[in-house]
Amino acid sequence: MAVVKARASDIDLLARLLRAEAEGEGELGMLLVGNVGINRIRSNCSDFKGIRTIPQMVHQPHAFEAVIHPYFYQKPRDKERRLARRAVNGERFWPAKYSLWYFRPGTATAPQPCPPTWYNQPFVDRHKLHCFYQPTGEECENVYNIY
To answer: Residue 123 belongs to what H/E stretch?
Structure first.
């Protein structure tokens, strides 16, 4: 059962985001990006107040670097659609289970250590090149109670 409403066009949009942001991180990496996106829709806190739909989340200004690159505009594949549906259906995985942010420091050929905080939120863990950050309970408690 979906935890956010999603039409076929929303699934395609999320699938394109997963691919553009984390294709090199494998299926789990793409699912983690999906987790962060769905958490942003469901949490209604911090920088994500009022974000209620997949298009709003994907196109929120400055939220995802991938949307400004041509790679984002490729047609989604079935693999990414399947992963997008899993995220929309509420499957969550560590370290993105409660995360609202992720960051890739450095480059693919020269990764850097994860900063201890990102947008004033503590580092949770790393998956391959991406570092994940989750809000503190006081500031954004909804993220812990949304499923």
So the answer is: strand 121-127
Q: Are 99 and 134 in contact, with CB atoms under 8 Å apart? A: yes
Please name the helix (run of DSSP H) or strand (run of DSSP E) that holds residue 37, with its range, or none: helix 26-43
Over residues 68-77, the mean pLDDT reads 92
Phi-psi map region of 104: left, alpha, beta (phi>0 left; psi -120 to 50 alpha): beta
- Structure token digits, residue 127: 């998956």
Instruction: Give the mean pLDDT of the chain.
Output: 94
Residue-wise pLDDT for 9-44, tens only, equals 999 999 999 999 999 999 999 999 999 999 999 999
Query: Is the pLDDT reported for residue 147 higher than 70?
Result: no
What is the chain's length? Answer: 147
Q: Which amino acid is at 52?
A: R
Tokens for 33, please give them: 């990006």
- CA 26 vs CA 5, 75, 96, 124, 143: distances in Å: 25, 18, 15, 19, 25
Whether the CB-CB separation of 80 and 15 falls below 8 Å is answered with yes
pLDDT above 90 for 138 = no
